[in-house]
Each structure stands twice: as C-alpha cells, then as structure tokens.
Amino acid sequence: MTKTTQPKAARRIINTTLLTAGLALSAGAHAFTVISFGGASGDAMQEAYYSPFTEKSGVRVTAGDYNGEFARIRAMVETGNISWDVVEVESPELARGCFEGLFVPIDWERLGIKDQVIPEAVTECGVGIMVWSTVLAYDADRLPRAPESWADFWNVEEFPGMRGLRRGAKYTLEAALMADGVPADEVYDVLATAEGVDRAFAKLDELQAHIQWWEAGAQPPQWLVAGDVVMSSAYNGRIAAAQEEGRNLQITWNGSVYDLDYWTIIEGSKHVDTAYDFIRLASQAETQSVYSSRIPYGPVNPDAIALLSDKQAAQMPTHADNLVGALAMNTEFWVDHGEELEQRFNSWASR
Amino acid sequence: MTAAMATLEQSPSGKTSGLKAQLRRAERLRKIKAVALIAPLAIFLIIIFVIPIGNMLWRSIDNTELQQVMPVTAAMVQEWDGSDLPNEAVFASFAHEIRDSRSGGGLGRIGRRLNYEDPTFRTLLTNTIRHLPAEADSWTLALQEISPRWGETSTWLAIQRAAPATTDRYLLASVDLKRNDAGKIEAVEQNQRIYQSVFKRTLLIAGGVTLICLFLGFPLAYLLATLPTGTSNLLLIFVLLPFWTSLLVRTAAWIVMLQSGGLVNTGLIMSGIIDTPIQLVFNRIGVFFAMVHILLPFMVLPLYSVMKGVSPSYQRAAVSLGAHPFAAFWQVYVPQTISGIAAGTILVFIMAIGYYITPALVGGPSDQMVSYYVAYYTNTTNNWGMAAALGSLLLLATLLLYLIYHKLVNQKQLVRS
Question: Which among A92, B96, B128, B210 is least buried, having the fewest CB atoms inside 10 angstroms?
Fold first, then answer.
C-alpha cells in the first residue's frame, strides 16, 4: 500500500511546487525589481525609497542585492532574459555598460529633475544616487594646526611625519597636481597631457620618502589613530565611523575627490515607466535626506542637506561648504587611461 | 559474451590457445580495473588542472575579439598593405559592423581590445557610433567627417594589429617589450618598464625566504628529531600551531607587532636600544618576517620526517674513527638529510613565488610580486590577456627552476652513492 501512495504523494508535491514556481515566475515577470549593493545601504534604501514608493504608487518593489558583478547584467541582456529593472552601479561600470549598450539612455526631459540634482548626477545612462568622497584626513590631536589643502599635505617642514596615500595612480595623481597648484576644475585637463602626467610624478618625487601606501579602506583611520601617519587620504565614510567611536579624526574637504553611485535601467526592461517614477521619487530632497540620515553618504539633491541635523549635514560630501575646492572623479578618463597610468605609477613606486 | 563464445570455439582446437585467451582476458580485466580506479582522479585533474591551465596559456596569445565582432573588417584589414589609407570596402564594412556590434556586448570587447593599442580608442568609437549616418555614398568621407582620426593610417594600423587570431603583445608586454608601428620588437618607454624588475624581485624574495627558512628550520628539525618523543611532540605542536590560524589573521598580527606603535618598536624604545621607532613593516623587512613565519612549517616538517629516519650511530661511528664532530655532522649527517632539504626548499620556494596577499598587506609598492599584478589585471582592469601572460611566464620560470634543481639534487645523490 505504502508503495503506491508514496509516488502519488510525491507527484502531488511536485505538482504543487511546479504550480507555485510557475505562479512565482509569472508574477516575477511583472514585478518591478530594484537591485542595490545591499547591506546597511540597502536597509537605508528600503526605508527611504522602496517603502515610500510602494505607498505612493501602489507598485510593490521587489528588492534584491548583488556584489556589482557586471557579467551578470551582461548575460541578462545578451540572453534577453531580463529579470532586473533598476540597478545600482558604480561609475566605472556605468561608463562601460553605457558604452556597450546594456543600459537604457536616460531621457532627462521626461525625468524632469535635471535642475534639482548636482551636475555630476546627470549622465547619459545613469542618475546619481549618493556621493562618497576621498578626503584628506588627519588626527587633530597630533597636528599644530589643521592642514588646509594638499599643498599642506606636501609641507613636511611644518607637518613632520609620514603620510598615507592609496597605493595606485587613481586619487594620488589628482592630489599631486592639486598640491602643485592646479585648480580642481583643471586637474583632468592637465592630467590628459603628457606634461601634466610628468608634472604629477615630479610632485610625487618630492614626497616619496614620507609616504606610507595603504591598500584597504580600513587602514587610514587605523594608522591615524595609532600614530603611524599624521595625515592620510581616506574614504569619508570610514572617517565618520571612526569619529563615532570617539576619535578626534578630522577631514579637510578642500581638494577632496568625490564619486557617485548611480541608478540605471537595464536595456530590455518592461517597467521603464515605473522605473522613471521610482528614480524621480528617489531623487527628491525628502527621500534623500532619510537615506543620508541613516548612512554618511551625501545626497545628490542639495536641498536634502537642509533637512538633516547640523552634525549630519557637516559630514556630507555634498554639503555646500564641503564642495568648495572639491573635484568630481572623471570616470571616463580613468576607464580610458587607467591601465597606462597605473603601470607608470607601479614603475615609479618600485624605484 | 563474445569473449566467452571465442573461448568455446577455441577450446576444441587446443589447450594452449585456450590458456592464452584466458590469460589475455584476465589481463584485460585487470587493466580495465586499474583504469577505472585511476579514472576519477584523472578526470578530476583534467577538469580542475589541465583545462584551466591550458585555457590560461591560450588566453595569453588569444586575439580573437575583433575577428568575432567584425569578421569581414578583420579579414579585409589584414590584406591591406598599410602604406596608404584602406579602400572604401574596408571603411564600409567597418561602419556596418560597428553599428551591429552595439547589441550583444561586442562593442565592449573590441573597445577594450583597441584601447590597449591606444588609450583614446574607446572614446573615438563612442563618438563614431553616436554620429554614424544611416546611409552614406562614401563611408571613407563619412567616417573622416565624424573624426579626422579615421583619415590617419596609424588608426587603421592599430586595428590591423588587433585583427589576427593570435598576438604576442601580452607576452612581450610582460617582459617590458612591445612592437612599434613597423612591427619591430623594442623596449617600452623608461617610465613604463616594470615587469622585468618584478620578476627579478619575485625570484629574489622567494629565494631569500627559502634560505632563511632553511637556516631556521634545519636546527629546529634536528632538535625535534633528537629530543625524547614526549618533548619533541610538544614542540611539534608549536610548529603546527600557526597552521590552525588563518593566513590573513597571521599577516594582520605581524602588522600589529611591527608597526611603529607596535609591540616590537615599543619594546625596543622602552629598553633604551633605540630612540625613534624603526620602519619594520610596509617594506621588504615586513615581507620577509611574515612570509618566513608562514612558510617555516613547510620546511620543518619534511626535514623532520627525514631526520627521524637517520640513525645516530653513523655519526657516532665517524667520531669514534677520529673525525672532528663538525666534520662528522657535515660529511656524514647532512648528506643523509639531502632529500628532506630538497623537498623542503622546493616546497617553500614554489609556494613563496606565488605569494600575493601577504606582500600586498605588509609590503610597500616596491615589494609586490608577480601575483599582485596578475590579480590587478584580473580583478581591476579585466585585462585577462596580461594576467594570463604574466601567469604563464611565472609557470615557465617555476618549471625551469624545478628542472635545474631536480638535476642538481639527483647528481649529488648519484655522487654520494
């Protein structure tokens, strides 16, 4: 008896599973899917963007996360099996994907938020989500006065001691040129010429004996606290976290290099209209301020700053005071010239 | 079935042939059994080891991007003599194929490949595709109107270099060489040279770590082998202890120990030996400290296992026959441990030559080894050709050194016997 009932039961289970899977699949084909990098940032997005969007439009957001695997997006578009609609990408992937036609070009007229966000948030295929920055950080307890620029970073007479810089050409060459007196808005024009690159490396020659190179983002705050270095380039989020632990680490925003994460719409998405509505809502001052109050990444909508507490606002890379003398990372430049300059940097650093 | 029938047919004709057939059958069965036993390992090795390494070796010369995305243009541009601009047919096929390349990610592949020839190529392709007219009487003029660079032979020479199925550019680039526009091999510019020194540095660091491990490991293994079992087992646990800790944790621990506010420097300053902290980490010293610590057990264990089997009576006999104790040790004991020394050094050297994460964390920019650049090209820039070329050269260097070493050790053993 049992022998005959068992397969029947099994078949029933399989049938039910298939049915539910089929339902889930067909539902999946219609659900609006937003993919972010997850983690603490993803939680903040749920509160700031996804829930208000569902409340307002009645469209349920299927939220997911990934680790920035570009190959996954490419495979999706190439096979035509599009299960993601709006995806968070970093700027080099945005440039590459836009070039390869993996993302839908943004119609800025239709989106209608061009004048509400910072200019760097406006690109061909992506809309800025938030801003993070590479800054000059220092331990205020160890220095006679606050360094005001990269020129002070290079001043080993007034500020003796080692300096931390990221081991690589990116951010380092920009800092060297700014220390040599190039205004922030001309840095990439100078760096695009052979003389400009020579000039940056000549400036680095001056400081080479005093540099301790970091590899991981956690190192600069640790070195600053331990006293291994007196100043360092660092990611602003890491310094904010160290400040919360009670360390007197400070940031010089002048000459900081900021970069953005972007929303992009996958080519072939069936929810382009919903995606536009979602991105529009996610770029409002109200939603952006909720996000930035949860995590120290700067809003792309400058009006959001006013809705934050003074203490939070001062930590934002997009705070009006912090944007003075700041430089927007030129992703196109690094996608094109990165390999050549990194090789030259490694050749120089080995000497 | 057929084999059984064959024996049935053969049995009346004579006893000897039946015996032979039986023997053959038994032999065949044994062979099949042996193959079946070996098969899982062989399949595993082929899938996990042979195919990926073959694939890596192939990638270091693979140049099929343009052929896959622009088959017609690639074929035509190879026939072009390179003196004047290519003819209208090349321009036309290029214009059509670049438009089609945008779907399916083809544009990304050729953009990346052509960017190795000239770092402004990707921007040129983006501009071209954006302004490409639907139809044109003369594609030669239409393309030149979009950018004057399509009227320069150097642009087309770059495409020509990307057209054949294989290329030596990655292998040349990984020893600081390149081909110029005329196709001659020459050294790259002074400020781009790096890999020759990186290879030298890699061999130097790996060799240095191996030697230090041998000098530290030999006395330790000798001590372990000669002490009473109880004490030596206890000491052996201390040797094995690091194995139970993650490599990353051990590396990070060395940073904490050696940094300027760390244990070692604080201790030295407090004891009055030095006044200002000395730089012990983020340079070559730190790399040696951490790598020797991590690799030492791989030297001690083979030495210990060989020394355990060496009878102390030979050395005693040599001394009793009037040899100086050092001579007895050097001429009688050490030659008996040569296979342990060989196994230990080759193990440590081959592991050290591929080290990546330890030098990356405790070294400075002038202490990075070949693996660092392999990781950089694989993860950061997606230039798998360069990563494969550097990896292939490292593999080749390791094999060569192993062969030389093998020969030397074998000769020594021959001389002894």
Answer: B96
Which of B22-31, B47-56, B276-285 has the weakest average pLDDT?
B276-285
CB A318 within 8 A of CB A243: no
State how far the Cα of B300 lies from the Cα of B244, in Å rounded to an integer: 16
Beta-strand relationship, A211-214 and A32-36: unpaired
What is the per-residue pLDDT for A21? 46
**How open is the CA angle A248-A253-A255, to the nearest 5 degrees?**
135
Q: Which long-range contacts (CB under 8 A, 24 or more apart) does B324-327 make?
A: none
Amino acid at A37: F
Interface of A with B (CB under 8 A): 74, 77-78, 96, 99-102, 167, 201, 212-213, 215-216, 223, 226-228, 332, 335-340, 342-344, 346-351
Q: How far is CA A176 from CA A14, A256, B221, in A?
A: 65, 12, 52
Name beta bridge partners: A266. Answer: A103
> How far apart (Å, rounded) are the C-alpha atoms in residues B207 and B184?
35
Q: A126-139 and A249-265 as β-strands: parallel, antiparallel, unpaired? A: antiparallel
Say if CB B298 and CB B355 are below 8 A apart.
no
What local confidence, expressed as pLDDT, does residue B8 receive? 46
Distance of alpha carbon A17 from alpha carbon A26, whole angstroms:
14
What does chain B come to in residues?
417
Sequence-separated (6 or more) residues with CB below 8 Å from residue B85: B140, B151, B153, B156
Domains and CATH numbers, chain A: 31-131+260-323 (3.40.190.10), 133-258+324-349 (3.40.190.10)
Tell me the pLDDT of chain A (351 aa) as tens digits.
Answer: 333 334 444 555 555 444 444 444 444 445 899 999 887 888 889 999 999 999 999 999 999 988 777 778 878 887 888 999 999 998 988 988 888 888 999 999 999 999 999 999 999 999 999 999 999 999 998 888 999 999 999 999 999 989 999 998 999 999 999 999 999 999 999 999 999 999 999 999 999 999 999 988 888 998 898 888 999 999 998 888 888 888 889 999 999 999 999 999 999 999 999 999 999 999 999 999 999 988 888 999 989 999 999 888 988 998 889 989 999 999 889 888 888 898 899 899 887
Cross-chain residue pair B115–A336, CB shorter than 8 Å: yes
pLDDT of res. A88 = 94
Q: Which residues of chain B have a CB within 8 Å of the CB of A335?
A: 122
C-alpha distances out from residue A31 to A43, A102, A216, A279, A297, Å: 20, 20, 38, 16, 29
- What pLDDT does residue A215 have? 83
Beta partners for A32?
A61
Spatial CB neighbours of A327, under 8 Å, sequence gap ≥ 6:
A174, A178, A184, A185, A187, A255, A256, A257, A258
Determine whether the interchain pair B107/A100 forms a contact, defined as Cβ–Cβ distance below 8 Å.
yes
Structural domains of chain B, ranges and CATH numbers in brackets:
2-59 (no CATH), 65-163 (no CATH), 195-416 (1.10.3720.10)
CB-CB contact of A190 with A199 (8 Å): yes
- A/B interface, count of CB pairs below 8 Å: 84
ipTM: 0.77
pLDDT digits 0-9 by tens, B139-178: 999 999 999 999 998 899 889 989 999 999 999 999 999 9
Cα gap B207→B214, rounded to integer Å: 11
